[in-house]
Amino acid sequence: MLTGEIPPYICNFLSLYILDLSLNNITRLIPQCLGKLSNCLIVLNLKNNTLQETIPNIFTNESWLETMDLSANKLEGKVPRSLEDCKLLEFLDLGYNFIPGGGGVMGPIFFSYCYVSGYMFGSNTRFGSDQTIITPNKTT
Questions:
Q1: Is residue 139 part of a domain?
Q2: What is the Cα–Cα distance from 95 to 87, expressed in whole angstroms?
Q3: Model's pTM, two decimal places?
Q4: Is residue 22 a contact partner of residue 48, using CB atoms and an 8 Å limit?
Q5: Cβ 96 vs Cβ 75: under 8 Å
Q6: Could you identify which of 18, 24, 63, 125 might form a hypothetical disulfide with 43, taking C-beta atoms 3.0 to 4.6 angstroms apart as the criterion?
Q7: Count of structural domains, the chain
Q8: CATH code at position 123
Q9: Position 140 in a domain
Q10: In sequence order, which residues have a C-beta less than 8 Å from that of residue 70 and are 6 or more positions away?
Q11: CA–CA separation, 98 vs 131, rounded Å?
Q12: d(CA 96, CA 108)
């Protein structure tokens, strides 16, 4: 089990396709340097840790990210607008954090750029919602 912060040397693996650090005791922030992996990272799974503060605005229009699971942490604030640049993103799970859910966060504009097949904002504590899976219509 990993504890503490995400080691910064992970950001030097510029051919990393899957980063799965779920089910650990990783604390503090999601490092800004993960933005360097935008053009290779396909899966980012950091669920079930104790990550705090906001999701950084690190995504680029060259992003290959298809799946991102940040559920069951202590993240808060709004979803970064740079997620619009993740044109290949198909699944996003932000449930069990302190993030407001529903269309008001990302809304139809987000989905017109990013063809997400489903996202989850289940039981975000401060907002008291039950598990919600939203599947917007995909367009081509």
A1: no
A2: 21
A3: 0.77
A4: yes
A5: no
A6: 18
A7: 1
A8: 3.80.10.10
A9: no
A10: 30, 44, 46, 47, 51, 55, 93, 94, 97
A11: 14
A12: 23
